[in-house]
Every structure is written in structure tokens, then in C-alpha cells.
Amino acid sequence: MGCCTRCCTLIFLCTLQLLAALERQVFDFLGYQWAPILANFLHIIIVILGLFGTIQYRPRYIVVYAIWTAVWVTWNIFIICFYLEVGGLSKDSELLTFNISRHQSWWSENGPGCVRKEAPMPGIKGLDSHSYISVIGCALEYRYIEVMHSSFQILIALVGFVYACYVVSVFTEEEDSFDFIGGFDPFPLYHVNEKPTNLLFKQTYLPA
Fold it and tell me: What is the C-alpha to C-alpha distance for residues 208 and 187, in angstroms, rounded to an integer?
């Protein structure tokens, strides 16, 4: 019963991680953040693998999931440092886009309360001849939204790591105990048939 409860908890955590990763993937696609897009894609695959391993009682898959959660925590710590500009990192750099474009986080222009100011470019006429100037009125700066996303990912990953290790240990103990019970009597058919055979011999040698 306890093992079932722990497995159900791990299944819930994996499902929550999937939903959070899919939500994050959508906004990273909108912001053309290619490095996070690749990381999220790998994360979704490994979480599905861990979910499958938990449902099908495959400890090796859960071990892979547990190892990945440690990597995922490290990645999200890097994202937090990137947006808070820790260790010489700059949130205005093109690191997350692989220097392909100058796009920033989707939240930088579409955060809560943000108003994008646009003005026509000098010397160019037309309906589409306008350039982005600035974003004002944001209730919360976009880097803090990204930090909150990463912090939530770290929290779920840490809890998932603990439960994954515990479930793997329970599965391993159950397998060892099963092998012990089966290995204690290596030839069960021989022992089962031994007694009837002895009785048959006794009946054969009974005096007439």
C-alpha cells in the first residue's frame, strides 16, 4: 500500500512536470529561445520515460529520470543566473538564441501590464514602416517571471528526485526479496515430487 502511494505521488509529480514543461515550451517558442526549447524537449522526453517506468515498474527508467532531474536543476540554476546577471552573464545577450537572432523572452514585451511603444522610422513610409521603441508599464519585469518559472521547475525536480530515489530503492528491495524467496529453494519441482516418489517406493516394497 505504501509503495502504491509513493508511485502515485511520483506519477503526479511527473504529470505536473510535463504540464509545466509544455507551458514553458510554448512561451519559449513564442520568444524564439532555441536553447531552452531544446532543453525543454529533452526534459519532456525524460519525464515521459520516468512516468512510464513508474507505471510499468521499471527501476532503470526511473534511475534515468532521477539523473536527468539533477541535470535539469543545474540548467534552471543557470537560467536564473542568466536573467539575474550573475557571474558576468547578461540577460541582453544572444546566448539563449545561439546568436541566431536578437529575440528576448516573450515576457519582455507581453508581461502583465506591459505596453509596447512603437514609432515610425524616419524616411520610410507605409503601413508596416514602424519600429519597436520600448516597453513601459510592466507590473513585473520579465526576468523575474523567468526566474519564477525556473524556481518552480527546480522545486518540482527536487521533490521528484527524492521520490524517484525512494521508489527505486523500494523496487530494488522487492526484487531482492523475491529473488531470495525463489533462490532459497532452487529446485522446487524436485522437492515437490520427492515425497510422492518415496511413497511409491514404500508401496512397492511392502510385504505381500
Answer: 35
